[in-house]
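ok, trying the design again with the full structure, not the truncated one.
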């Protein structure tokens, strides 16, 4: 999944002509051959310092600000007194009112959650503690096991129950086990956060402090039996279809049929388990941890799940850790901004329908479908000429590429969120109602055909994704529907540098180190020969090494293996978009704009998609727990591997942006 380049069309045209924007951002004092990311963006950075409520601010946040203004306007329109609303609009208006009013409400958990916690003291055995966790999951409270339903990766015609490792409050297991300064800083601040939230459940300070230390120790034991993030990237190694009896055998004493039932899931013959060794480890951890500690852990998970939405006091206390310790921000975002984020996660499709009706035309949709097909055609040609794949593997890849479904703008089928029991009451009650509705829909599909038309993002979301199970790329309207986009100011260099790099990025995800394991229909399969796989691996290792050398913070390097899939997609996205751009009249004309050639402007436009600043705390978290490399590396490292970049800016040996041709990696 790729975020930054998805701002694409809106920025230059909405606020300045594209040519002026690129020139205004560029700092001639920084040589493009020294640090291209800074050269392209330094003046934009100076003009956009971080506000106290921002952990980071990138050019896609700028677009998000513009989109948010449109979304807020449609909410104000729906709340106009006397307006005649459809049933769906009425549900949206009720939810929005509850979101704007939550700060003044009581710090009281939803009634269903309180009822489960009221039975908690009776849970003493590992089985009972697992069942209570399942009870809580029905209300959206996560704990030490993840349970859901999705397409079976080995049977594209059936939805399966899925079970995976879970239970950690910190971003990644190294925060519990790492010995260096950053995880230690976060780890030492965590107990105070736990104690603050437990106080809202009535715990006295001494009791809350003791429970917090015990909870950290318990989560540390969970971390010890969890896989690292990079070990979750290989879909083959995270797929184990087991019978209920086989699942029970992983941790003797735990009976999963009852756990599934308590979670609201159907008791099927099989469950797809992501990490079987975690289930075994969980059984041992539960058996050797005092039940009182596990009960406190579940109480903490319950309050933590709702702290952001109970009232202003709980939200402020949660922010002290989540916003300040983990991210470096010192002030919460505005109530409206937080309300929009909450609403997006719950009933975003209701908002999306209204947004599309106002801000995205069928003409825009068709234009970007055309751009998408241009990039796909280039990719198909490059596959046919790929020198390191054998003929059979090239044919397999070609069939998969041809079958990719390109979803542009908005879904053809909306999620009927208005079916949820949303009313004018408390926000937490509306959230519980929506979660229950989603859970019923999700589990009702187990054993049947997957839902292939609904999206995992909203049309107003500044992002995009590739879904391997449906072999689809999804490009929401918000990144394509800027005011004046069709204007002459947006030439092909900007169009392909902004938008087509994103399209190419998402298409490439179907052929990265994870996506390549899925076939044209979304089935987990091996379509590559061993020789082709070996050639691919050799190229990946060179790419990993080029990122491993990067040190964005003192003593903290990029993890080239953790970020490999995104790095492959970044590199492929630029290669595909560039190849498509070289076929345009804009490139062939050679006409300069703002003193820059079309080729130079393509790279400047791409660099601007990652313009931005980030606080050290957030960057440190990203380096440990994000599959994306930091922004500067997503520009500079990628472009070092692109021959045309060196041609455009005349790099030479000794320049920081130079990379010897023999070391440049070309995968797609």
């Amino acid at each position: 999944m790729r975020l930054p380049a998805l701002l694409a069309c809106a920025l230059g045209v909405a606020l300045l002509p594209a040519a002026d924007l690129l020139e205004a951002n560029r700092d001639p004092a920084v040589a493009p051959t020294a640090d291209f990311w800074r050269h392209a963006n330094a003046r934009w950075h100076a003009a956009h310092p971080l506000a106290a409520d921002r952990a980071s601010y990138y050019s896609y946040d700028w677009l998000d600000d513009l989109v948010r203004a449109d979304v807020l306007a449609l909410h104000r329109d729906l709340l106009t007194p006397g307006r005649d609303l459809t049933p769906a609009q009425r549900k949206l208006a009720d939810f929005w009112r509850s979101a704007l009013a939550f700060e003044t409400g009581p710090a009281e958990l939803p009634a269903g959650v309180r009822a489960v916690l009221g039975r908690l003291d009776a849970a003493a055995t590992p089985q009972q503690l697992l069942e209570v966790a399942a009870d809580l999951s029905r209300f959206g409270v996560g704990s030490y096991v993840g349970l859901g339903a999705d397409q079976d990766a080995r049977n594209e015609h059936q939805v399966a129950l899925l079970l995976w490792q879970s239970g950690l409050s910190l971003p990644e297991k190294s925060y519990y086990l790492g010995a260096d300064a950053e995880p230690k800083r976060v780890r030492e601040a965590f107990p105070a956060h736990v104690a603050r939230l437990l106080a809202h459940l009535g715990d006295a300070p001494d009791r809350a402090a003791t429970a917090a230390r015990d909870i950290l120790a318990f989560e540390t034991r969970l971390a010890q039996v969890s896989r690292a993030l990079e070990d979750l990237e290989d879909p083959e190694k995270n797929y184990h279809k087991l019978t209920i009896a086989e699942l029970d055998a992983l941790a003797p004493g735990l009976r999963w049929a009852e756990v599934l039932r308590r979670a609201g899931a159907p008791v099927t013959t099989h469950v797809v388990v992501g990490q079987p060794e975690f289930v075994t480890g969980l059984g041992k951890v539960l058996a050797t941890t005092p039940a009182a500690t596990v009960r406190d852990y579940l109480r903490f998970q319950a309050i933590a799940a709702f702290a952001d939405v109970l009232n202003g006091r709980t939200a402020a206390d949660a922010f002290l850790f989540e916003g300040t310790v983990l991210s470096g921000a010192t002030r919460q975002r505005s109530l409206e901004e937080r309300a929009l984020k909450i609403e997006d996660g719950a009933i975003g499709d209701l908002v999306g329908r209204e947004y599309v009706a106002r801000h995205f035309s069928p003409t825009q949709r068709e234009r970007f479908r055309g751009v998408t097909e241009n990039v796909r055609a280039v990719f198909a040609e490059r596959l046919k000429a790929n020198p390191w794949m054998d003929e059979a593997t090239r044919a397999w890849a070609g069939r998969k590429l041809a079958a990719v479904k390109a979803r542009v703008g908005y879904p053809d089928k909306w999620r009927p969120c208005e079916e949820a029991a949303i009313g004018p009451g408390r926000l937490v009650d509306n959230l519980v109602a929506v979660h229950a509705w989603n859970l019923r829909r999700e589990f009702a599909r187990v054993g049947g055909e997957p839902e292939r038309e609904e999206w995992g993002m909203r049309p107003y979301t500044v992002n995009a994704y590739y879904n391997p199970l449906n072999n689809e790329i999804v490009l929401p309207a918000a990144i394509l529907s800027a005011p004046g986009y069709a204007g002459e100011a947006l030439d092909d260099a900007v169009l392909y540098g902004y938008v087509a790099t994103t399209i190419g990025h998402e298409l490439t995800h179907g052929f990265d180190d994870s996506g390549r394991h899925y076939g044209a229909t979304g089935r987990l399969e091996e379509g590559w020969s061993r020789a082709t796989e070996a050639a691919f691996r050799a190229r990946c290792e060179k790419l990993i090494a080029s990122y491993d050398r990067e040190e964005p913070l003192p003593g903290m390097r990029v993890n080239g293996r953790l970020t490999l899939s995104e790095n492959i997609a970044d590199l492929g996205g630029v290669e595909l978009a560039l190849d498509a751009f070289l076929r345009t009249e804009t490139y062939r004309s050679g006409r300069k704009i703002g003193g820059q050639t079309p080729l130079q402007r393509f790279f400047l436009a791409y660099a601007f998609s990652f313009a931005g600043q980030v606080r050290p705390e957030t960057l440190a978290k990203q380096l440990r727990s994000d599959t994306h490399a930091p922004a500067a590396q997503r520009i500079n490292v990628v472009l070092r591997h692109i021959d045309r970049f060196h041609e455009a800016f005349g790099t030479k040996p000794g320049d920081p942006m130079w990379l010897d041709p023999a070391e440049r990696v070309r995968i797609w």
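Keeping the full-length input from now on. The first helix runs from residue 10 to 15.
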